[in-house]
Each structure stands twice: as structure tokens, then as C-alpha cells.
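Dataset card, provenance and construction

Sequences and ligand SMILES were collected as paired inputs. For each pair, a complete structure of the chain with the small molecule in place was predicted and serialized as C-alpha cells. The example below shows a pair involving glutathione. Curators did not alter the output after generation; any descriptive sentences attached to a record were derived from the structure itself.
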Amino acid sequence: MEEELKLFRTWSSPFPLRIVWALKLKGIEYDTVYEDLANKSPLLLEYNPIYKKVPVLVHGGKPIAESLVILEYIEETWKQNPLLPQDPYQRAVARFWAKFGDDKVLESIKKVFMNQGKVREEGVEEALENLKHLEEELKGKRFFGGEAIGFVDIAVGWLANLVSVIEEVVGLELITEERFPLLSKWTKEFAAAPIINENWPPRDKLIAKYQALHQTFMSKQE
Ligand SMILES: N[C@@H](CCC(=O)N[C@@H](CS)C(=O)NCC(=O)O)C(=O)O
């Protein structure tokens, strides 16, 4: 008998979306528990007592937290449609870029979104520098994973989802065709891939959410 599989997520958070995409790409059935992060369920707190964040994947009653860790678990548990390459060195390279996406790209884009004036400008510079590295990594490839969507595509997939929302809310451009032709093309192709496209939060709802968030950050700085 298949063990029960449950994903704790929210409708909009980019981290659980990684898990949604990976499970769908592998054709794994699961149940969803939608959390209200302003009022976290006792189960979420029990399953992720340290970070208290989504996503949490619960497999046969056992919880796994942290989206990149969960992705690795999924990859090791269900071998079909592999997301990581076979070669150990290439696997390490993929993990490097996934971590770079969180440590550097995400942090710089957060800096752009949460600040204004000089700090935002610094954030833009840092984001462009980081995005340049991703542009380089895409040379000669359709996806970061090669011909098919892989681990790195899923890990940095939030870029295709959220950057244009952030650009619209903040009123600036980061990923343009002129600056980043490959990344720009990747954004469109990744977003258009059926499984990604079908599991994308509605843009108008995201814009409204991020507009409200942005106003909160800006009013704190006045
Ligand atoms: N490093 C974590 C980040 C997860 C994360 O930041 N989740 C946010 C939603 S976007 C959350 O649950 N926040 C609740 C909180 O901080 O209280 C991962 O990759 O899973």
C-alpha cells in the first residue's frame, strides 16, 4: 500500500511550489493542506517546530522540512523522471546553483523589494550581478537541467513566477531580453511548460498580495 503523502503549503508561497512541481513532474499523488501563516496550524508547528515554515512534506507520518531538502528526498524516493543528473560532479553543480539561487539571487531580489533609495539601488546592482551568473549557466541549454526541466529549474522557478510581479509592484525591470536573453527565454519556456503553468498562482492575486506587502515595507521606512 502507498504511504500517505501530504504537503503543507500556502496558495502563494514560492517554496512549496517547488514541491508541487517536483511531485507533479514525477506523477506522484499527494494531499494538500493549505496553511494560513498568520494563524499556523498546530500540526504545522508540530511537524516543523524549528523553522515553523511551509513547505512541509509528510510521508507515511514522517515530516520533512526545507524545500531543497524535500526536493532531494523526492528525488531519492521516486526515481522516475530524474531531476538530478547521474554524474556525481554534475549533481554537485546542480546543488550549487540551487543554493546560489536561495543564498544570493533571492536575497538580492528581497533587498530590492523591501527597501527604497540607496539600499534598493544596491539591491538592483547585486541582483543583476547574480542574474548574470544564471544567464552564463544557461549557455547552450534550453533549461538549467538541459533539454528537460530539472532540479535547478525547480529551485529557481520562483524567478519565472515572481520577478515580473515584483518588477510591476516596485516599478523597475530586472530580467529584460536585452540584459538577459537566455534567462528571459527560459522564464517564458519554464512558465509555459504544462505542469508549471497549471500550478501557478493567479497573477492578479499575486500582484495584490505583493502590493500590500510592499506598502507595509515602505511605510516602515517613512
Ligand atoms: N528555506 C525555507 C524557506 C521557506 C519559507 O520562507 N516559507 C515561508 C513562506 S514563503 C513561511 O512559511 N513563512 C512563515 C514564517 O516565516 O513565519 C525553504 O526553502 O523551505
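Derived descriptions for this record:
The chain is about 60% helix and 10% strand.
The mean pLDDT is 97.
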